[in-house]
Amino acid sequence: MDWVKGLLGIRTLKKGTKIWSATTPYVIEKLLGEGGFGAVYKVHVAGDPSLTYAMKIEQRRRPGKELKLKMELKILLAAGDSDRRCLHFTKLIDRGSRPEFVFMVMELVGKSVKDVQRERRGKVFTISTACQVAEQTLEALEDMHALGYIHRDIKPSNLTIGVGAKRHIVYLLDFGISRKIRNEDGEIKLPRWKCTFKGTVKYASLACHTLREQSGKDDLECWVYLFAEFVHPGGLPWRNMDNTKEVYREKRKAHERPRDLFTGFSRPETCRFNDGSMSAPLDWVQRHSPVTPEQSRLSVRQDATSSRYGDGYRPKQGQPQQQPQRPPRRRSSSSRGMTRSSTIHAISRDRHPCTRKLVDSD
């Protein structure tokens, strides 16, 4: 009960309330949003109202419960210290803690992609806008995976646009359920045999639905659903479903017929890629993926180890492959079906188009 009271208090901080970090006092201006474990406020530095930031506050949880803000801090610190540009991560300004809560201060960003999409005619983006947002999301995922983390909750409300001179940049937010998948040596961690559901039902990958360990490929599967929703006039086929089993069945159908997700392409739109080629986006993804039956079977055999140990795992040269200490089990028909998927399975491999520039020809 005390924890609930503390959470309610965090969500109702009054304008003018001061919160101190180790070095700087911040003044609450207004509430920007709230979630299950805390809230986000617009703040400014005391004595200088021109320095405005976003402050994310999380109530301290019961003993033994991990703070979600801890993972967010790790990722933003890693992005800030990385040699990569990490353009799509907000800049961490400050952080601090109090007996009742912890907080971090970040640069202020604008509307979420979800809000921007709602304001558009028909609630869909043009092909040009959809490709730009999708490209920048892929760049963000490429950076995040290179840092050794997966997001596990890719959706429009976790993407936002910048403000001012950075209004053309898409930012990736909310790393509360992200997971570190590489150890200190840079090797992929061994996966757990069974996991809890981590994600949003509408965009979750098939592995998430079946409570299997997620990896980089699952972030990319979420990205496919995200991209499809940007251009589909009616949204995703399972948009009005609440039953997770029904959603899972619809996603299985989408794996068999991925083009059905992209009916928003009302005419043969083409884009120019950095290799000079002109192609429809989905055709380009498939052309750079193992889509033929022979190639698909080969990729499944080659990827058998990575599917067990995690995306990208390869044993060191000259060393035998380690085996998890668990009796062998028969694969279900649903698991066998997943290995036959074309587009979504293909882009989940190392050849996904994160590093290629995508510019609409219009």
Plain-language structure description:
The chain is an alpha+beta fold and 362 residues long. It folds into two domains: 105 residues, Phosphorylase Kinase, domain 1, CATH 3.30.200; 233 residues, Transferase(Phosphotransferase) domain 1 (Transferase(Phosphotransferase), domain 1). It has twelve helices and 13 strands. It has a six-stranded antiparallel beta sheet. The longest helix is centred in the middle third of the chain and has 20 residues. It starts with a helix and ends with a strand.
Number of domains: 2
* Through-space gap between termini: 57 Å
Looking at CATH, the homologous superfamily of the largest domain is: Transferase(Phosphotransferase) domain 1
Please compute the radius of gyration using only Cα atoms. 22 Å
**Number of helical stretches of at least 4 residues:** 12
Number of strands: 13
Question: Level of helix content?
Answer: 25-40%
Please tell me the overall pLDDT: 78
Query: Unreliable stretches, pLDDT < 50, 5 or more residues?
Result: 288-319, 321-325, 332-362
CATH topology name of the largest domain: Transferase(Phosphotransferase), domain 1
